[in-house]
Amino acid sequence: MKLGTIRYQGRPTVIARVADDKAVALEYRWMEDLIEAENAGLDAAAAAIEAAIAGKLPVIDLAGADWMAPNPRPSKILGCAVNNNNLNQYAVRPMTAPMFFTKGRSALTGHNKTIDILKDHGQSIPEPEPVVVFGKTAKNVPPEKALDYVFGYTLTNDVTASGVKFSQDSIALKQRPEVVKPHHLAWRPKFEGEDTYLLFIYHSKSKGADTFAAMGPWLTTKDEIPDPNALRVRGYIGDECYADDSTANYFFPVERVISEATKWFTMESGDCIHTGTASKGTQKHPRGNIGTYLNLYDGMLTDVEVEGLGRLSNRINLEK
Fold first, then answer.
1. CA distances from residue 134 to 8, 45, 126, 278 in whole angstroms, order as listed
2. What is the number of alpha carbons within 13 Å of residue 165 lying toward its C-beta?
3. How far apart are CA 275 and CA 245, in angstroms?
4. Residue 154: beta bridge partners?
5. pTM score > 0.85 for this model?
6. How far apart are CA 140 and CA 262, in angstroms?
7. 133 within 8 A of 150, measured Cβ to Cβ
8. Is the C-alpha dihedral spanning 226, 96, 92, 175 positive or negative?
9. What helix, strand, coil percent values describe the chain, rounded to 5?
10. Cα angle value 266/267/268 (rounded, 5°)
11. How far apart are CA 91 and CA 81, in angstroms?
12. Distance between CA 46 and CA 26 in Å, rounded?
């Protein structure tokens, strides 16, 4: 089943897909309410689809729909950073556990909306990837039970503004030797001479700015995705594919990502995890997403396509 959220007749409305470009409105205003209703919510959606097919409920034409993110009110959005073997082959020290960053719900935007890049963001790249959406509260979940807590999956363009990340949001502090501890340096190469530099990078502006979490259009229930670790993921600028990858290329499988997240955070119904970017390039774009600078494509479409989940399209809008 594919579910979404649009603004319909002046209010947010959860919809269920009847056909490729047709849907039926459900009684729920917010996706999180449907998720929390558990089987009753899914049963209501299935009954509405059947009624729409039978002509007993009106069908919504989705041409020109005002899409929102499928679940617009998560309590938290996590991203799993650098979770791709194409990137980790360059790691100085292999990761020992998934790394996370957070985004606020104000970063969410929907299908066919703009991705807005400020002048201060500078060089910015797309990151096409699937998203896990939780179906119930999860805490300290072992990997072998992780998928039991998944309601479904959507897809995102997890925009990263490298320009601001490595300028305004990075700082190197040269500390006194007595301040520096082994764990400060163990993760990176040491410089020649007296190396007491502490390096800090903060991700809020580069990862969580408004519109930097485009999602949708659909949230696909987990029964349609038998293996989240075997999904083809592609990214596009206009009609050109710049990344063609698979979740099979993740450094940490989806189950480990979910488990690690629940160790540190209580994940609630409707909460999201971006599970890892597609990074493998194409013949015309050999560097993949890390060589695709959105700030060079003002006014063009950038799309994300994930096998079984659909295609998300957004227009790049640079601050003038």
1. 25, 18, 24, 22
2. 15
3. 13
4. 131
5. yes
6. 5
7. yes
8. positive
9. 25, 35, 40
10. 115
11. 13
12. 10
Quote the CA–CA distance of 280 and 146 in Å, as a whole number: 27
Other beta carbons within 10 Å of 72: 18
Written as tens digits, the pLDDT of the chain (320 aa) is 999 999 999 999 999 999 989 999 999 999 999 999 999 999 999 999 999 999 999 999 999 999 999 999 999 999 999 999 988 888 888 889 999 999 999 999 999 999 999 999 999 999 999 999 999 999 999 999 999 999 999 999 999 998 998 888 898 889 898 999 989 888 888 888 888 988 888 889 999 999 999 999 999 999 999 999 999 999 999 999 999 999 999 999 999 999 999 999 999 999 999 999 999 999 999 999 999 999 999 999 999 999 999 999 999 999 98
Angle at 208 between CA 30 and CA 204, to 5 degrees: 140
User: Which segments within 135-228 are labelled E, that is strand?
Assistant: 150-158, 160-161, 170-174, 197-201, 213-215, 219-221
Strands 108-109 and 213-215: parallel
Residue type, 183: H
DSSP 195: -
Question: In the numeric block, which tokens belong to residue 309?
Answer: 């989940």
Number of CB atoms found within 10 A of residue 167's CB: 14
Q: Pick the closest to residue 282 from 320, 244, 311, 309 (CA basis).
A: 244
Q: What three-state secondary structure class fits 136?
A: coil
306, exposed or middle or buried, with CB in 10 Å at 0-12, 13-18, 19+? buried
User: What amino acid occupies position 191?
Assistant: F
